Amino acid sequence: MLSEEIKNKYQLVVGLEVHAQLLTASKMFAADSTEFGNLPNTLISVITLGHPGTLPKVNKKAIEYAVKMGLACHCEITRTNIFSRKNYFYPDLPKGYQITQDKGPICVGGKVPIRLADGSTREIQLNRIHLEEDAGKSIHLDGEPDTLVDFNRAGTPLIEIVTEPNIYTSEEAYAFLTEIKKLVKYLDICDGNMEEGSLRCDANVSVMLKGAKELGKKVEVKNMNSFRNVVRAIEHEFERMVGMLEEGKEIISETRTFDANTGTTSGMRTKEELNDYRYFPEPDLSPVVISEEWLQSIQSAMPTLPRDLYKKFTEEYGLPDYDASFLTESKELALWFDELCRETSLYKAASNWMMGPIKSYLNETATHIYDFTINPKRLAELLALIEEGKVSSSIASQKIFPELIKTPKVSPFEIAQKLNLIQESDETSLKPIIEEVLKENGQKVAEYKSGKKGLTGFFMGQVMRKSNGKADPKVATKLLTELLNN
Ligand code: ADP
Ligand code: MG
C-alpha cells in the first residue's frame, strides 16, 4: 500500500472512450435487424457477412442519432462525412475490416458538464464522437476447445464518444459515464445498458507528478462491464503506476484487461505489437452530406435534456440539488414530476412524495413510473388535502396512497371520507376529546400545572390515539394548551 503522502505527489489523468449501441431497428450498413437476444446467426445477410460483390448502404437514422448526441454535447457537426476502412483480421470480423470514421468524425470537440458529490461542477472536453459498426461476438464455452462466432451483432451501429485526457479523478469518470448514460437515454438513441453491452467503456489512464507539463505514458484498460468497475480499474491503475514510478520503473504503453474478481488489471498487448490498421476511405460509400435543412430538422426534434430539467427544478421550482438530481435520473420520472408541478405549486412537498412513498412503491413492486396508476392530477389533489389540513401526511401516505393506487378513479378526498380519515380541525369536535384525555389523566395534569411542561407531548399522543390519528395537530395543540392553562 502506498502512503497518502506519496500518492499526493501524483496527478491521475484519464481519457475515456465510450461505445454506445444505437437503438436503430436495422444495422449501420444493412437491413438486418439489430434486436438483442435472438438465436445466434439469425440476423445476418450477405452484407453483414461481407460476401464479395455486396455493397453497404448508410442507415439514415444512425446519422441522425449521432448528430443528436453531438448537439447534446455542444459538438461541431461535420457536414460532409466520409467513412473509412479499419483493416485487421479477427474471426468476428468477416469483412476483414471495420467501417468507421478516421479523419473527420461526425461530431468534433464538444463538452459534457458533470456535477460532483460536493456540489461542484466541471466540464469534460470531448475530442470527438464518431460513427462505426460493431463487430460480431466470439463465444468461448467452458471446456470447449473451439471458438464460436455469432454475427448477429456484426454491423450494429455504434457511436464512440472520445474524451480529451482531462478527467482527473475516478469520481469524475463515474460522473461523466452517468451523464452519458442519462443523455443517451433522454435522447432515446441507446438503452444505456452496460451489463448487456449496449454501453461499453475503455479507460486510458496515466499518472504524472503534480504540476508536470507533459502527460505520462498511458495504458488503455478494457473489459469493465459496470461504471463501478471502471472506477475500480482506474484506482487500481493509479496505484500500480505510482508504485512503478516510485520504484524507478518505466511505464509502458499497453492495453490491459480488468479482472472484476480481483479488481486488478493485467497486460494484453503492448503498443509496439499494435496493428497498423491501414485506414483508407471506404470506396463503396459516397460521402454523407448533412444539409442545413436536415440539421435543422434534427435540432428541432431534440427532446428536453436532463440538464434543462435540472435547471428548471432547481431554479423555477426552488428544489435542492439532491432532489433535482434524483428527479432527473430518469426521463420518465422527470417528465412525470414536471407534469405534477403543472397541477400543484407545492413543489417541495411534491418532490418529497416522489422521493418517499412513490419511489418506495415503485421499487417494492418493480413498477415503472409509466405503469403507475395514479396520475399527476390525483397526486396533486392529495397534496392539496394535506396542505389544507384535511388529512395528515402520515395518514395520506399510509392509508390514502395505497387506496388511491387501487382505485385511481376515486378522488383522494372521497377516499378519505369513505375511510373516515378526514382530520378533525373543528374545535367543537376536538374539545370533548381533549377534555376526556385530561379527565383520565388527573395526576399528569397536576404535574403539568406544577411545571412539567414537557408533558404536552404525552397529552397530544393520547389525543391522537383517541381521535384515531385524525386530530389536526396544530388545532389540537392550541386547544390543549388553552385547556391545560385554564
Ligand atoms: P491513441 O493514438 O493511442 O489511440 P489517442 O490520442 O487517440 O490515443 O487517445 C485515445 C484516448 O486516450 C483519448 O480518450 C485520450 O483522451 C486518451 N489519452 C491520450 N493520452 C492520454 C494520457 N497521457 N493519459 C490519459 N489518457 C490519455
Ligand atoms: Mg485513438
Describe the fold and architecture:
It is an enzyme of class 6 (ligase). The chain is of the alpha+beta class and about 475 residues long. The protein has two domains: about 5-295, no CATH class; about 425-485, Arc Repressor Mutant, subunit A, CATH 1.10.10. It is built from 16 helices and 17 strands. The strands form four sheets. Strands 1, 2, 6, 7, 8, 11, 12, 13, 14 and 15 form a ten-stranded mixed sheet that branches. The chain has a three-stranded antiparallel sheet with strand order 5-4-16, with no helix packed on it. Helix 3 (about 170-185) packs antiparallel against helix 4 (about 225-245), helix 13 (about 425-440) crosses helix 15 and helix 15 packs across helix 16. Bound molecules: adenosine-5'-diphosphate (ADP) and magnesium ion (MG).
Fold topology:
Blueprint: H1 4-7, E1 10-21, H2 60-72, E2 76-77, E3 80-81, E4 84-87, E5 97-100, E6 107-108, E7 111-115, E8 121-133, E9 137-139, E10 148-150, E11 157-163, H3 170-187, E12 199-209, E13 219-224, H4 227-246, E14 254-259, E15 264-270, E16 280-281, E17 288-289, H5 292-300, H6 306-316, H7 321-328, H8 331-343, H9 347-364, H10 376-387, H11 393-406, H12 412-418, H13 427-440, H14 442-449, H15 456-466, H16 473-484
Parallel strand pairs: 13-14
Antiparallel strand pairs: 1-11, 1-12, 2-6, 3-17, 4-5, 4-16, 6-8, 7-8, 8-11, 9-10, 12-13, 14-15
Helix pairs in contact: 3-4, 6-7, 8-10, 13-15, 13-16, 15-16
Bound molecules: adenosine-5'-diphosphate and magnesium ion.
Adenosine-5'-diphosphate binds at residues 13-17, 127, 162-165, 204-206, 215-216, 218.
